[in-house]
Each structure stands twice: as structure tokens, then as C-alpha cells.
Amino acid sequence: MDENKIIEVAHLKYEYPQASRLALNDLSVSINAGEWVAIIGHNGSGKSTFAKSLNGLLDLQSGSITIDGLPLSIETVWDIRRKIGMVFQNPDNQFVGATVEDDVAFGLENQGIERTEMQRRVQDAVDRVGMTQFMTREPSRLSGGQKQRVALAGIIAQQPEILILDEATSMLDPKGRQEVLETIHTLKQETNMTVLSITHDIDEAASADRIVMLDKGQVIDQGTPAEIFAYGQRLLDLGLDVPYPEKLKAALTKLGVPMPADYFTTERMVDHLWTLHSKM
To answer: What sequence ranges are listed for the domain ABC transporter (predicted)?
Structure first.
């Protein structure tokens, strides 16, 4: 294994019972340590199936998965799960504690972490996600955004090398989504954690180092956000969204307004339109 590759997946195949086609169809991809990779694709493209395969939640028909040098197997699955933290779409499915503090501590208790160290990690994780004042609250009485931050705190406390976000921001309002993503960005900068984001949210994908596109259980393309979003119409044909500046660029191009072919962020679009306006 390349020492810089923390995740290596080769020729994965998986078919759900009574399914008409493979959910994963010869899927191969590798992810570097410290990289943020967004996995995008329409519903049924294999995104969540791929995420669940990485820590042994699925019994694959064929293929191999290597996590930080460890081939996934019955013998290694628990060692690998200690390296991976997963935050799911619905945080209610992850809560087991009677209070926020108890819930964040649960995973550490299972790992047998010494009490003083456990208390330090819980406090640090809750502080990071801005939930300190809710330590004694019942998770079920929190808002959706607060619940997701608590779920994230429970994973942060375990200090995994890899964080997998499986549509983790999809149930949040824009403000809650931004807060969660900012927390993860800060954590990644401080720890060089590897982040794998399974998402429909185009802004979340745009913040990644690399985007991997799935369709029919296969990797059909990958590249930087600028490279992928520049495809424009191709993404729309696959049932995916594109950032608003790209939609605006396509509309202006149809009207005969000169627009560069490369990817535009909002800031670049504003600068370009301002430049055009000043020349008129």
C-alpha cells in the first residue's frame, strides 16, 4: 500500500437482496491521508453503500478494502472501526445516552478509556461543536442542528483518523449546515483528519479537496471541484446539481454574453460581470 493512501478500495461488488442490479459494480478508488473527498451521485448511485462498506457493515460479494494498511476482514474489522468515525443523516439513530454528556462519553466507555482522559475528551469535543451549555440536556429535546453537533461530538471524542459524513448535513437548515461544516474544517486543519463526505449538497462538495462522482455503483469521474463543476450540463444530465454561478454562466452564455469555460466561484462571477459592465 502507498504510505500516503489511507483508504484503498479495489473492485468492490455488492448487490442487495431482490435488487435488479449491483449497488457497487467493480468500484475502485483511493483516498490520501489528510484529504477531504466528497462522494456525489444521484439517489441509487451507490454512495451510502460505499460508505457502509468501509467499516465492514456490508458483506461484499467481491473486492478488497484496505484502511491505513489494514486489509478489512473478520479479524481486523474492529481495529478498522476504531480508525473510522461515521456521522449519519439522522442523528437520532446514534443516540444512546440520557444526556449529551453521557452520549458523547458512550464510545469512550466502550473503548475502556481511563476516566480522567474520558472527561477531558468529552469536554473538548462538546466545546468544539458549541454545545457546552447543553451538557445535561436530553439529546431528544434538542433541535436538529444541535442533535447533529452532538452526534459529531461523540465521534470527535473518539479521535478517529477518518471521519465519514453520510449525508450528515442533509437534514439541517443552511445555518446549521454551515456551523457543522465549519466545525469539521477547523478540526481537520488542527488534526489532519481524513474526511469522506457522502453528500447531495453542492456547497459541501465544493469545499472538498477532490470530488468523486458515482453512477450505477461505479466511479465515473473524479477531480477538483473546479474540474467537476465545469462539466455543467453533464452533471445536470446525471441528475446532479451545480453551483449557482455555473447555472448563471450557462444562462448568460445562451444569451450571447461572453463567459470563460472554466469553473466560476461566486466571487469570480461577480468580478467577471463587474469587468464586463465596466467595458460597456
So the answer is: 7-241
